[in-house]
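The protein record filed below.
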Amino acid sequence: MLGATVAAILAPRPPRAARQPDACQAQVRARTRPADRALKTVEVPMRRAVLAATLTMLIAGAGCVRVRTPLAVHETRTFAAGPDKLVRLDVGPIDLHVTVTGGTAITATLDLDARSSSRGAAQRWIANHTPVFEDSPSALEVRLPSRHRGIFVLGYLNARARLDLTVPPACRLEVRTSSGDVSVAGEALLAGAARVTTSSGDLAVEGGLRELIARTSSGNVRITRRPLAALEADTSSGDVTLESGAEGATVDTSSGDIRLERLAGDLSATASSGDVSASWERIAPGANVHIRTSSGDVRLRIPVGTTLAGEIDTSSGSIRSSIDGTRGRHDHQLSFTAAGAAVAIEVRTASGDVSVRTHR
């Protein structure tokens, strides 16, 4: 209604058909031109005043809506678990928390809360965000209903959605969200690799996983507390942070930064404009380190006594290393050679700087 009112007020008047005035009409128009100009001068402010008054009334009406009792859903469902049973979730904007713990059952607790000036809008939001559960002996599928769509409200709508899932370690886990955040925790560890895909949602892992395969657009990935056997992460603008360590890692970002600590094996890292920072707790001869960046800097910390074999190359950046090597091409290249077993290293950047340091 607001759009129609504004359009009606601002719509230009249709042009009048052109006619050839006769002599009498010309004399009348000549006498009335000053009055016409005065009328037009007054007409524009009047239309603006009407528009302002209409907008003020509509905004005031929206701001004085009655506060309604919130609608809430709290329900828990239980499903049988089994060895290698797949738990697959596609829950859009719903925040998801997964706990890996011992047991023979999968439990799902849903919490929805909607507060709106329109009870109908709150009811539609609840319906759109109530997942559908489809269970079988081999898989539990959790997804939003197909009717899920946006809601327009003239007033306010404040809502939150969260799903808490408890999964035994014998199950497999696949998660997909849009803007919903995902967190995983637990003292027990899933036997297989967990796959998590988000758009703008963040992923936080504080245990519960041996292996993680993560895909995000702008969401960040952060792993703490428990080390991983393997990490594979691919982001667009999201950062990847590993604090708890991994035996091997493969990380690819566009503009996100990569920060990896307590590594214990192979590393493959690719970044466009993001920086790469990696630190090893231990690394054995035969391990491979491959890093490529465009404008991002590279900082590596390697245990004292590590033998390297390979090359560091940068187009316009600088190279600083506490491990001796052979300099070349105006100090933009550093080569390492080894007589015996060594860690294979290859670092290439365009304009980024490279730093290699040792630590005890």
